[in-house]
Amino acid sequence: MSLTTKDMSVVKALWGKISSKVDEIGAEALGRMLVVYPQTKTYFSHWADLSPGSAQVKKHGKTIMGAVSDAVSKIDDLPSALSQLSELHASKLRVDPANFKILAHNLIVVVAMLFPADFTPEVHVSLDKFMQNLAWCLAERYR
Amino acid sequence: MVEWTEFERATIQDIFSKMDYESVGHNALARCLVVYPWTQRYFGNFGNLYNAAAIMGNPLVAAHGTVVLHGLDKAVKNMDNIKATYAELSVLHSEKLHVDPDNFRLLADCLTIVVAARLGSGFTPDVQAAFQKFLAVVISALTKQYH
């Protein structure tokens, strides 16, 4: 389900609207994921505080969203935009790719909560496709 | 048997007691048909589903969304016995409607997103966890009679 030019422009337009809250979205999505899908906590056993709003969760949520925002800016060529991160996730982090879908879902929930008027079904489908493509590229180097 | 905490019970009762069934049902079903277009396969006789605007404006989609959401009432009222409560509906979805159970998850995700948009900051992580657990139990019950 590859991205059409329409999907790309819809996602870029959405990012324009949400850019001021990008850090908050990342922190909220990550914190939420750790609560709603407790099995994801297994990747963060080295953190002291896994509760939503903790300093580590906020910082890491910001890091993740920074990477997603970067991918939006390079949306025409996601495979090369994500090749280094894919290498990192494959060889070092070894996050099961099923979790990419889980984080994407939580990201979408937070966007819907913070921007209910902007997150129409048409915007939703393009963002869903974008996250799916991003996940695919992120898993590229796994095997 | 599913164990529910007091918080989970209260959360589910609260969400559904305040739910605008018509609006939420309509929006959740329509969103599902737009975001996951293959789900349209079950609605061949609904007329114009040609694009997002047509789907959102389609009165049959709106009406059916309400029906589906009211179907969740049974679970809300029988939280300790959801599996038995949905036995008949499970047979219906399997034998008569021939719905791939994966679609239940897709609709549940859309419902979660619509409710999240309505509740805003009230949709805390704990509320989300309770709501998603409730929907997961419903989905499991609806899938139970498939063979």
TrEMBL record, chain A:
InterPro entries: Globin (IPR000971), Globin-like_sf (IPR009050), Globin/Proto (IPR012292), Hemoglobin_a-typ (IPR002338), Hemoglobin_oxygen_transport (IPR050056), Hemoglobin_pi (IPR002339)
GO molecular function, one term: oxygen carrier activity
Gene Ontology cellular component list: blood microparticle; haptoglobin-hemoglobin complex; hemoglobin complex
Pfam families, per the entry: Globin
Spans through the membrane: none
Single GO biological process annotation from the record: hydrogen peroxide catabolic process
Residues annotated as domain Globin: 2-143
Top-level lineage group: Eukaryota
Keywords: Acetylation, Heme, Iron, Metal-binding, Oxygen transport, Transport
Function: Involved in oxygen transport from gills to the various peripheral tissues.
Assembly mode: Heterotetramer of two alpha chains and two beta chains.
Family named by the database record: Belongs to the globin family.
PANTHER family: ALPHA GLOBIN-LIKE-RELATED, HEMOGLOBIN FAMILY MEMBER
Protein name stated in the entry: Hemoglobin subunit alpha
